[in-house]
Amino acid sequence: MAESQARAEKKAALTIAVLSSFLTPFMISSVNVALPAIGEALGADAVMLSWVATSYLLAAAAALVPLGKISDIHGRKKIFILGIGLFTGAALLSAGAGSVWSLIVYRVFQGVGSAMIFATSIAIVTSVFAPRERGWALGITVTAVYTGLSCGPLFGGILTDWLSWRSLFLFPLPLGVGVILLAVFRLHGEWTDAAGERFDWIGAAVYVVSVLMLLLGASRLPDAAGFGLMGGGAAAIAGFVLWESRVRQPVFEVHLFSGNRVFAFSSLAALLHYSATFAVTFLLSLYLQYILGIEAKIAGVILVAQPVMMALFSPLAGRLSDRFEPRIIASIGMAMTAVGLLLLAGIGKETSTGFVVAVLLFHGIGFAFFSSPNMNAIMGSVEKRYYGIASGVVGTMRLLGQTFSMGIATMIFSLLIGRVQITPAVHAEFVDSVNIAFLVFALLCVAGIFLSLARGRLHPN
């Protein structure tokens, strides 16, 4: 009886994690497709439209670690249900937004809800599954993330064209309500491994400010204001670390970085990997359309090659990390990613689409072999009472890396092309910019290989 109950608990936890892990990236990628329609309907300029997307990411990144700590104290299931409720409610409000300002406010709330979901869903899966099967479960969860990212642009475009951009925000409602019901009635028990601890409000406030400054700074590179914000964010992070090392019950355990090499190096490897890979789709989308003259819908089909491989191979990579050292599997994946980026660093006007597709397929497999084992290493290297914090760190590294990746690409464009439209007159400079960006990203991955290999062992001898 106990064994069948445990199986039911695992099934419910994995189903909830998969559905919620699909929902949040789907919203991110689908809304990006609908931005022109939103701008036309609400009379928003390009800057305001950028905030429709950026406000969500900023709120999610700043809230992940504090909310992870709150879930460790007050219950991961409770925070998850509140998070999916907030996410779904904010989506409903967004669908009825009457101005771009109100939409941005609702997106902030949706970002906070997304942080509550991510900080707890991974922690719940880690709590329910034993170490010998945890990598497989996390691999399935990662597959859901990539599936959401893949489906977002396709279905986002269809919903926007056939119905309206408002339908994108109505899409999550039945799924969100279903996940809430499943969590309430099928996910029994609660996980409060840090129950009784006090929440460090000062540390949380300093952390939120520092992350916001870093992300805003990275998004404004290479402007002087961007470097200034990043410098201020780095100073605030230093102050945060100093405060957290002295407070009795910190919002983030600094010793997880200072005294846990597997956790620290795995987290930094994730930061480098996302910094090196997130802008790949952005750069190739422009390259395929401007340089190779491919239609947008065909370019979208080509770009799906990478996330499809990521979705297909993530469960296998996770399963392998249950049997073998995650650092070995993840390092192989990082090396494959570096090779793929080096190959893309040589593309030009004569490059065939077949070559691009082949590299994307290879690159997607490398991404899968890094991501699932690396997450398994992070979650498996900490005590149960830190699962929420560790989940928050995973999400924060992802969002920081994504922002840094776009910042690097934007800075290279600004230096080589300037703030001009991409026309045939600057195609040569554009190709040079793309090549340099991919070379920089490849070098980041090479550094990540050494971090990944140096993290130490997770499994006992």
Question: Can you tag this structure with a few keywords?
Answer:
461 residues, mainly alpha, Growth Hormone, Chain: A, 3 domains
Outline the structure in words.
- This protein has 18 helices and no strands.
- It is globular and about 65 Å long.
- It has 3 domains: 1-188, Growth Hormone, Chain: A (Up-down Bundle); 200-250; 261-461, Up-down Bundle (Growth Hormone, Chain: A), CATH 1.20.1250.
- By secondary structure, it is mainly α.
- 54% of the residues are buried.
Provide a short characterization of the protein structure.
This protein is 81% helix and 0% strand.
Shape: globular
CATH architecture classification name of the largest domain: Up-down Bundle
Task: Count the domains.
Answer: 3
Low-confidence stretches: none
CATH homolog superfamily of the largest domain? MFS general substrate transporter like domains
Output the number of helix runs.
Answer: 18
Content-based structural category: mainly alpha
Order of helices and strands: HHHHHHHHHHHHHHHHHH
CATH class of the largest domain: Mainly Alpha
Strands, count = 0
Helical amount: over 70%
Whole-number average pLDDT? 83
Largest sheet: none
CATH topology of the largest domain: Growth Hormone, Chain: A
For the CA atoms, what is the radius of gyration? 21 Å
Termini separation: 33 Å
Work out the strand percent.
under 5%
